[in-house]
């Protein structure tokens, strides 16, 4: 094959060529000509990140189990490989069979976070595909996206034919089946596209005029229009070209409404009432990837209700996986993959009701096989010495990570993460007194009601923790402090909060740099410009499509990588498109302002979020909703699903047995989290593990 | 140190085209995981960061396939070589082909210390005339010295002489725009020739190529016993000591 000859020439000269060659154990290579429906699963970042994404592994497993479907993988090439592919005219190809992306029926992108939007454009362009959905017809693959970022799909609405909102396990097959039915009906009318030629649009002219006519794209193409109509009937599928956005005279968003009959005004996310069996036949990478291990989701969703936390809101309700199923999966994973480590994933692992039994039994069965257990995000109150010591049998670790997120008791009440400073210091005693050397603390600045006193408290608390370490192990003790800036995310109680002013962020970071210098202390922080981009892209509307495209044309790519982030390209793109980023990120919002993501229904009532926002400003704390149901909307939205599910598997009370409660004051201990936390269906991982955000606050 | 309590197995295998770009470190992980899937009781080193006792005879250059590569594995408990072969064949990715398994004397010096040369085959795409290439092969072999530069990651390049590393070189075939070379290169610690460098010296630097190592040549006797006959692979590029990162 020509592609392979060209690869022979370029692969010896690119970094990590094994990213581009596939052939891993458990990768599934089906007979291309005998399988009618072909899906490319695309992760718009590097192989190492994409291969660490549990959501895509789940979909790969599910689709490949269907005899008449295949799923193959494709990732975003690093710039050296991208350049070489463009020089050689090699179109983007799948790792299993080296087929160009244009040969697939459906291309499904995972969008776990916003910083990889420009990589989607790189990949479409490198595949020879027109970037805008309106420029593609029925001869092109259907291009869809899912994942956590898709809970506000609007900024990427120009580029995708459809979005899958919510959990993908069931709906992915419905989409493929719908596609199959459509193709059978239209088979005569569809002629194949000529062999793909490398199409390059990068560097094309300035931003076009506003895409006012957007939404009429498929009408000139009856076959494609019919496909999109069929897809829009699937619950959880959002076809953006069937909707039109309206804006007020002052530029604020007014409303979005359907432009074709029979499509829903609101798109409710999909959930699976019971977690499907876990993946055990993971693809085993040759390269060392970000998370080089197997992962089992032990629980989905979280009921703690931290007010800044996107995952905690959009992944409700809590569903538990039975202990026996997890233990069986661990046995199978070891036999089928040979991985040395298994991670038990959850937004809050210790909330899993049988966490102690799980760890003990796994160690009893596999401890002698040198198996390590990863337990991201344990809460300290159930993080017993017993579990610590069980984990220790697997692999030596240097310490633990905690995420108090704010340094004063007052501010932790505001964010509803009510952990006392005393409890954190007690945990530090436990950790250092057992000889572990490092505690890592995560904080955010820019919470609502934060004062400089709360920022100073970060430095004070870090030094107090270090003092505990010094007392036990002297100079060996370390405290690592990670400080990020609150990005107010859609569908959270903080969606009304403005991003902190850049001058204030810089002032606070500069204070912390001075206050946290010295032996034993290590501070990492985020570049405020990258934070701004994340805020704009997560809070944006359709008008941002032009900005994303223009920034990409100007060279923005791999925006999640500190060494690739191109602030100048984004600044120029905002200017050329007449968009003020602060309008999106820093404008205070009235409680009744319409948001561009309001038509995406994650199951939460806007009233619940608004009440929680007001509780935040009043410093009121609410407890875990397994103790008191706050009627967030989940049970109402998913009452049918709840009825089908055994009580012990679902965190919300059974329908008809409401427990409701008012804000309460309670006290809890801090939550250690591991940044390796992977969230179901591809929210997740920022790329920092590969490109540590050290010492470059700008 | 050699541990007579452990079973030492010597595996001959092929590293196929599909995995020619994986590094030596990746290859160690491939074997460790394959052994775990095959339920072989791999022996591990002691200490904070136990590593499996696996020792590859000689790292293949990245991008190069291998037809008869040799690796030693140590097991904690005896398993018949035929049984090892049977179980491993089911557990290896298709591109890694197990050719032979035999028991080796635990006291024998390491494979690494015994490798002295390697033979490679290189198929190169070129439109040049066969006799022109053959002539350059002769010029190369007739040279007294072949000073060359070797680029090093993050360090200044080193100047070295390729000629003493080149033991033999032949143009094995030519036609259809492709030339096939065969070469024997020294492969000793600190004196290892690389096939790409020979191709570069032939003026075939940037042409598409497929290179395969046909076999390794081992010295029968080693005068000086190496410090460790069972080297433990520990040059891990991850840092398992630091789960926080
Ligand atoms: S419905 Fe009640 S119990 Fe369920 S997630 Fe919402 S607040 Fe929690």
Précis, in short:
The complex is a heterodimer of chains A (698) and B (245). Chain A has 698 residues and is α/β, with parallel strands linked by helices.
The total count of strands of chain B amounts to 11
User: Can you list the ligands bound to this structure?
Assistant: iron/sulfur cluster
CATH architecture name of the domain at 2-268 in chain A: 3-Layer(aba) Sandwich
Structural class of chain B comes to: alpha+beta
CATH class of the domain at 2-268 in chain A: Alpha Beta
CATH fold call of the domain at 2-268 in chain A? Rossmann fold
Number of domains of chain B: 2
Q: What is the overall silhouette of chain A?
A: globular
Largest sheet of chain B: 9 strands, mixed
- End-to-end Cα distance of chain B: 33 Å
Strand neighbour order, sheet with most strands of chain A? 2-1-3-4-5-6
* Mean of all residue-level pLDDT scores of chain B: 86
Total number of β-strand segments of chain A? 19
Q: Which regions of chain A are unreliable across 5 or more consecutive residues at pLDDT < 50?
A: 193-216, 665-698
Describe this structure in words.
The complex is a heterodimer of chains A (about 700) and B (about 240). With about 700 residues, chain A is α/β, with parallel strands linked by helices. Among the domains of chain A are: about 1-270, Cobalamin-binding domain (Rossmann fold), CATH 3.40.50; about 295-395, Transcription Regulator spoIIAA; about 605-695, no CATH class. Helices cover about 30% and strands about 15% of the residues of chain A. In chain A, the strands form six sheets. Chain A has a six-stranded mixed beta sheet. In chain A, strands 15-16-17-18 form a four-stranded parallel beta sheet, covered by helices on one side. In chain A, α5 packs across α17. The longest helix of chain A has 22 residues, at about 450-475. The radius of gyration of chain A is 25 Å and the shape is globular. Mean pLDDT of chain A is about 85; it is low at about 195-215 and about 665-698. Chain B has two domains: about 5-110, Pseudouridine synthase I, catalytic domain, N-terminal subdomain (Alpha-Beta Plaits), CATH 3.30.70.580; about 115-220, Alpha-Beta Plaits, CATH 3.30.70.3190. In chain B, strands 1, 2, 3, 4, 5, 8, 9, 10 and 11 form a nine-stranded mixed beta sheet that branches. The two termini of chain B are about 35 Å apart. Classes of the chains: A alpha/beta (about 700), B alpha+beta (about 240). The interface of A and B includes residues 397 and 399 of A. Bound molecules: iron/sulfur cluster. Iron/sulfur cluster binds near residues 630 and 635 of chain A.
